[in-house]
UniProtKB/TrEMBL annotation:
PANTHER family: HISTIDINE AMMONIA-LYASE (PTHR10362). Signal peptide: none annotated. It is found in: Cytoplasm. It is an enzyme of class 4 (lyase). This is Histidine ammonia-lyase. Contains an active site 4-methylidene-imidazol-5-one (MIO), which is formed autocatalytically by cyclization and dehydration of residues Cys-Ser-Gly. It catalyses: L-histidine = trans-urocanate + NH4(+). There is a cross-link at residues 143-145 (5-imidazolinone (Ala-Gly)). GO terms for molecular function: histidine ammonia-lyase activity; phenylalanine ammonia-lyase activity. It comes from Streptantibioticus silvisoli. GO terms for biological process: cinnamic acid biosynthetic process; L-histidine catabolic process; protein homotetramerization. Belongs to the PAL/histidase family.
């Protein structure tokens, strides 16, 4: 089984995905354990002093002026976890909770938080046992950390609250820990605070969204190429020299993907039963510009994610020279902004895909295709309502594109008077990514059906080899082709699975080689 070793230097996005979505085991290096112990010694020394230190001998947030004596400090740490585990709403997905826990463990391993090694070891044990604390949808403002989500995870470390076992059954966390031989942690000075103060939830969701969108941008280039071909559009607009004079790297990559998918096509730009078109519609001609802008947005978001992944987010932090300093590094603005930016890119990519689908179904703009790609228009409605579904998804993604990070709201008696709402930005981005997958799946259904109708209507018109590979793979995956009206939802579900699983990209790449 693959193992991820955490050292003081941090981890990679690939490691986060391996733990969150896979069964990778987590190990703490000797270097990490030594660094954790060294920072703990600093906290122990401060705890013995009389001067107040936030989170060690004081209350939290607006209660930071309240002095806490030595006899109450263990209770203080338990209390912050219990009181902050105040989430509500539906359960957060297992992969998000595992990413959140792993990223918090990564910060503990940095040697800047002041926890004891036993705390980090217990969190690693929880991950390795497949125990996933129940975390609720609402409770984080994306500042002072993803407080409620992280608190529910810390609660499980204490043997309290509920968690999902490796069998998927939710049970009391204490029972699950006992079954796996994990001793509940009795928190000491600063440890409860250190388990809560981080951007881990929003960062985990950002890393997963970046991975998913990278695949979807490639899928979108393929469906755009299929639509261009089905509409008898010209591929001359994909020429490299045209994109070189507007040097956005994402645009060039998308144009190259489309050009390679369309190589060898007998449909593009040469067989029109009407006066030749000088230019195709924007949704066809500008596909590389829109998808490319999204790719460049993704590149920026990935850079921000990598920087955050290299960070140790806690307050206060233990510095290398032994100082313990309060700070504002838990503020989620950098992550929240790019989460919102990606939601905008996802919404626009879905919007242009829907415009291509609508063009394929409109007999006045499809250049000879039957209305709604129906077998017997009038008797049959074809893909009419599939486009309705796609339009509904596009409209919802436009709502998800409204930025959460611009909607700060004060909390904690105005001590925490500006927050990032990064968790909310991440939650809506996950919905937007899911919707984009379905939008592209519907374009795939329409474009492949249109290509087959073109080929059936002529003995000389033929699709590109890569397009033909996609059509054949889609049909093998349960996405049925032209014919009389039938129960359509299963076809759309099969197309969604085909796109989500990577089958669409794999089919095209079987001819083109690896696409960007």
């Amino acid at each position: 089984m693959h193992s991820v070793v955490l050292g003081a230097s941090g981890t990679s996005a690939e490691d986060v995905l391996a733990v969150a979505r896979g069964a990778a085991r987590v190990e703490l290096s000797e270097q990490a354990l030594a660094g954790i112990a060294a920072s703990r010694a600093v906290i122990d020394a401060l705890a013995a002093e009389s001067r107040p230190v936030y989170g060690v001998s004081t209350g939290f947030g607006a209660l930071a002026t309240v002095h806490i004596g030595p006899e109450l400090r263990a209770q203080l740490q338990r209390s912050i976890v219990r009181s902050h585990a105040a989430g509500m709403g539906g359960r957060v997905e297992r992969e998000v909770v595992r990413a959140l826990m792993f990223l918090r463990l990564k910060t503990l391993a940095s040697g800047h938080t002041g926890v004891r090694p036993v705390v980090a070891e217990a969190m690693a044990a929880l991950l390795n046992a497949g125990i996933t604390p129940v975390v609720h949808e609402f409770g984080s403002l994306g500042c002072s950390g993803d407080l409620a989500p992280l608190s529910h995870c810390a609660l499980a470390l204490m043997g309290e609250g509920d968690a999902e076992g490796p069998d998927g059954v939710v049970r009391p966390a204490g029972e699950l820990l006992a079954e796996h031989g994990i001793t509940p942690v009795e928190l000491r000075e600063k440890e409860g605070l250190a388990l809560l103060n981080g951007t881990d939830g929003m960062l985990g969701m950002l890393l997963m969204a970046c991975a998913d969108l990278a695949a979807l941008f490639t899928a979108a280039d393929i469906t755009a190429a299929l639509s261009l071909e089905a509409l008898l559009g010209t591929d001359r607009v994909l020429a490299p020299e045209l994109h070189a004079i507007r040097p956005h790297p994402g645009q060039a990559a998308s144009a190259d993907n489309m050009r390679r998918v369309l190589a060898g096509s007998g449909l593009t730009g040469h067989h029109q039963d009407e006066a030749p078109r000088v230019q195709d519609a924007y949704s066809i001609r500008c596909a590389p510009q829109v998808a490319g802008a999204g790719r460049d947005t993704l590149s920026h978001a990935t850079l921000v994610a990598e920087r955050e992944l290299a960070a140790a987010v806690d307050n206060p932090v233990v510095l290398a020279d032994g100082r313990v300093e309060s700070n504002g590094n838990f503020h989620g603005a950098p992550v929240g902004y790019v989460l919102d930016f990606l939601a905008i890119a996802a919404a626009d990519l879905g919007s242009i895909a829907e415009r291509r689908t609508d063009r394929l179904l409109d007999k006045n703009r499809s250049h000879g295709l039957p209305p709604f790609l129906a077998d017997d228009p009038g008797v049959d409605s074809g893909l009419m309502i599939a486009q309705y579904t796609q339009a509904a998804l596009v409209s919802e993604n436009k709502r998800h594109a409204v930025p959460a990070s611009a909607d700060s709201i004060p909390s904690s008696a105005m001590q925490e008077d500006h927050v990032s709402m990064g968790w909310s930005a991440a939650r809506k981005l996950r919905l937007a990514v899911d919707n984009l997958t379905r939008i592209l799946a519907i374009e795939l259904v329409a474009a492949t059906r249109a290509i087959e109708l073109r080929e059936q209507s002529s003995t000389v018109l033929h699709a590109a080899p890569a397009s033909r590979a996609v059509v054949e793979a889609a049909r093998a995956a349960g996405v049925r082709g032209p014919g009389r009206d039938r129960f359509l939802s299963p076809d759309l579900a099969a197309a969604e699975t085909f796109v989500r699983s990577g089958g669409l990209v794999a089919a095209a790449e079987s001819v083109t080689g690896e696409l960007a």
